[in-house]
Structure to design on (133 residues):
């Protein structure tokens, strides 16, 4: 899981760099792909593994509740950012652009990345508490 999440982190950073370089179409596909892999593959795998290892929720001594609530916020901001990205995008000559009125997508995207990184770090901390502490 750590390796897969690290690859997703690299993909999110790469997608952010593409957006900064005004490569909208490429940013769109990398970000959407990484987000969907995270939501549809990694999150269900982590939840299933957690229930197998720890049993029914809550898992005392792991600090998992704060991780879950932060992860829910990540999903909400991620979905909101994707929706706004589709709402405000402009396609011209096969290229995608984000007009000035699309700033909400940009700021939600920043918030999404920051919270995703915080969730990743907290997940590592929870793992350390549960297995090494």
């Amino acid at each position: 899981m750590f390796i897969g999440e690290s690859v997703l982190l690299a993909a999110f950073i790469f997608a952010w760099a593409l957006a900064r370089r005004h490569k909208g179409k490429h940013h769109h596909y990398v970000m959407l792909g990484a987000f969907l892999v995270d939501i549809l593959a990694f999150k269900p795998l982590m939840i299933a593994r957690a229930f197998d290892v720890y049993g029914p929720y809550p898992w005392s001594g792991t600090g998992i509740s704060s991780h879950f609530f932060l992860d829910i916020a990540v999903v909400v901001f991620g979905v909101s950012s994707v929706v706004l990205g589709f709402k405000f995008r402009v396609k011209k000559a096969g290229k995608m652009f984000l007009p000035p009125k699309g700033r909400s997508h940009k700021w939600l995207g920043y918030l999404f990345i920051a919270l995703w990184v915080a969730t990743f770090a907290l997940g590592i901390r929870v793992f350390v508490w549960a297995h090494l502490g």
